[in-house]
Design a protein that fits this description.
This protein has eleven helices and twelve strands. By secondary structure, it is α+β, with helices and mostly antiparallel strands. It has a domain at 229-342: CO dehydrogenase flavoprotein, C-terminal domain (Enolase-like, domain 1, 2-Layer Sandwich). It is globular, with a radius of gyration of 20 Å.
């Protein structure tokens, strides 16, 4: 049985108290559902002096529709605000999420298992630590490997032996979807509140893969409501269809001229996960704009671009070339499902 290291626990009841504790307790870590950090502590991947529990911070469990703001130009669109403390089950089952952002509801509903979704939070899934087959093992296993790696006790990357940067993978289900939906991340810290686009929130560094500062807390996410007809999907591939982290993942979003799969595509986003520490936004998809979503050429264009631009590494189980092929397969399947749904 793996045991947790000893640490203190703090139980603040509001966001201001959390920020104060982060300043007063250097090295302290935040814990919400604990489904990510506690297994990592058991593997001795961190030994913080204290954990700051967010269980009593009711402000983080807010979910509401914010009205559009008028002003110069077109103004700001109506926004769905989701507190970082909402459980993944609450996100997956929320009527406004299911109505306006079905791909996010799908992604949240596919995380791990019902028990874990009942505990894990949206903010926790957003800030999920990067994972690697050479890191997320027991300390005994890592020592037997020969001293760990860049992310643990060593100074070498076993995935890219001559690499200087950690390439542990971002395996969050919700993150690729949030990027595809133009979500914004709200952060609170000693200097006040700031908002960062989800697309800019992640960095290609497995050791510190977000721009969140050590003294900051993720308080919520803002998702602009669609201004026109849209079809979106989330696809992941795992071996057991439950519990597992995704081995590849794809978030797709198609904005349409009309509310029909026969309408022309006006814009699209495709985001791939589980490649490295930062999700990849697939580029050069302009050829699909103007075509009907039902047009077989769209699936061919998207699947081809995904396969060409996304090159998995050997940082999670299963061979990278096979995972690359599965990206193309699941892109086609996701688009076919959208067309079939009508």
């Amino acid at each position: 049985m793996l045991r947790l290291p000893q640490f203190g626990i703090e139980l603040p009841e509001d966001i201001a108290s959390v920020i104060t504790l982060l300043r007063e307790r250097p090295g302290a870590r935040l814990v919400a559902g604990g489904t990510d950090i506690l297994p990592n502590l058991k593997h001795h991947l961190d030994q913080p002096p204290a954990l700051i529990s967010l269980a009593r911070v009711a402000e983080l469990r807010r979910a509401e529709l914010l009205a559009a703001k008028s002003g110069g130009g077109d103004g700001e669109p109506a926004t769905l605000y989701l507190g970082a403390g909402l459980t993944l089950t609450e996100v997956a089952e929320h009527p406004l999420v299911r109505e306006h952002f079905p791909s996010l509801a799908t992604a949240a509903g596919l995380v791990a298992s019902p028990l874990i979704r009942n505990m894990g939070t949206l903010g926790g899934n957003l800030n999920l630590d990067t994972r690697c087959r050479y890191v997320n093992q027991t300390k005994f296993w890592r020592d037997a490997l020969g001293g760990g790696c860049l992310k643990s006790e060593g100074n070498v990357c076993h995935v890219v032996p001559k690499g200087r940067n950690c390439v542990a993978a971002m395996s969050s289900d919700c993150v690729p979807v949030l990027i595809s939906l133009d979500a914004e991340v709200e952060l609170a810290g000693p200097e006040g509140t700031r908002v960062v686009p989800a697309a800019d929130y992640f960095r290609a560094d497995g050791l510190r893969h977000t721009v969140r500062e050590h003294g900051e807390l993720t308080t919520g996410l803002r998702l602009p409501l669609p201004a026109a007809a849209r079809r979106c999907a989330y696809a992941k591939w795992t071996v057991r269809q439950s519990i597992d982290f995704p081995l590849i993942s794809l978030a797709l979003r198609f904005d349409l001229a009309e509310d029909s799969v026969d309408a022309a595509i006006t814009d699209l986003r495709v985001v791939a996960g589980v490649l490295g520490a930062k999700p990849r936004q697939v580029a050069r998809l302009d050829e699909a704009v103007g075509k009907a979503l039902r047009d077989p050429a769209v699936a061919q264009i998207v699947a081809g671009a995904v396969h060409k631009q996304c090159k998995p590494l050997e940082n999670v189980p299963y061979e990278a070339p096979y995972r690359r092929q599965m990206l193309r397969v699941h892109a086609r399947r996701a688009i076919a499902a959208l067309v079939e749904a009508g």
